[in-house]
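Q: Got one fold?
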Amino acid sequence: MKNIWKIFTGDLKKLVKQPFALVIIIGLCVIPSLYAWFNIFANWDPYANTGGIPVAVVSLDQDYTLKDGSVVNMGESVLESLHSNT
């Protein structure tokens, strides 16, 4: 364990003497952190501002008559559901 600390402290001393290497090390630590932060911030709530986006829905479904004589049109029921959600 002593050898590990010697190597670590020796590397830190060399790093302090080389400012360019220190800048590179700091950049290697900060840039991925900033990338992750911006990514998380951008994807935190993607549906927050989608209320004003216009959407067009077309239903070309035809009616279907069941054996008991009732008529079913799933396209119309989906459109009614979408209209009620606005």
Notes: The two ends are 66 Å apart (CA to CA). The chain has three helices and two strands. Residues 55-86 form one domain.
